[in-house]
Amino acid sequence: MFQLIWMDTPLPDGKDHSLVHVVDDDNGIRAALRLALTIAGHAVRVYDSAPAFLSAVEPHEGGCVITDMRMPEMSGLDLLEAMNAQAIRLPTIVITAYGEIPLAVEAMKLGAVDFLEKPFDNAVLIEAVSQALRRERDGVREEETRRSQALLATLTARERDVLAGLLKGHQNKVIAHALGVSTRTVESHRAHIMDKMNAGNLRELMRMFLFVPIDP
Fold this sequence. Notes:
With 216 residues, the protein is α/β, with parallel strands linked by helices. It has ten helices and six strands, in the order E-E-H-E-H-E-H-E-H-E-H-H-H-H-H-H. It has a six-stranded mixed beta sheet with strand order 1-3-2-4-5-6, with helices on both faces. One of its GO terms (biological process) is regulation of DNA-templated transcription.
């Protein structure tokens, strides 16, 4: 049901912080992810379903998880809910189809630390995994939260309104309608937000505000 590939020595705390759990029902995607991660130096375990992962993983195991969003039997969202219920505290990256930002938002509300939109290249994958493992290893949430709060304070009230819509996965025209402004105005605010936050894309912006409430 799953394969084990051991490639690293656990750190002194007994956890293998280079370990990546890959959960995907597609054989080809599992193989491609395993190859890319192995070449990057990670130990990899692959699972063909969410139940297979849940039955094999130990509650206090180290590493991180990459899971597809759409799978039969249990979806990525179902997996996140089950991990929460079973106190499996592994940072999780979800893979979504292009344009599924609302699903990514739901996943992050359930505890996912990042998302990747298909198609993505290996460099983006490896960077996301490195960030997730660093979070698991160093406990960087508090530091990231303080930084995001400081950046949030630089936004105007209207920019915060637009940001709230973006973090809900809404398109510019939907945000414009809700705020009673033009789409061009929202686009302008969005550009200012990205510049002030030093975010290269929406994915980076969403990661910054995982744990920071933005409502006034």
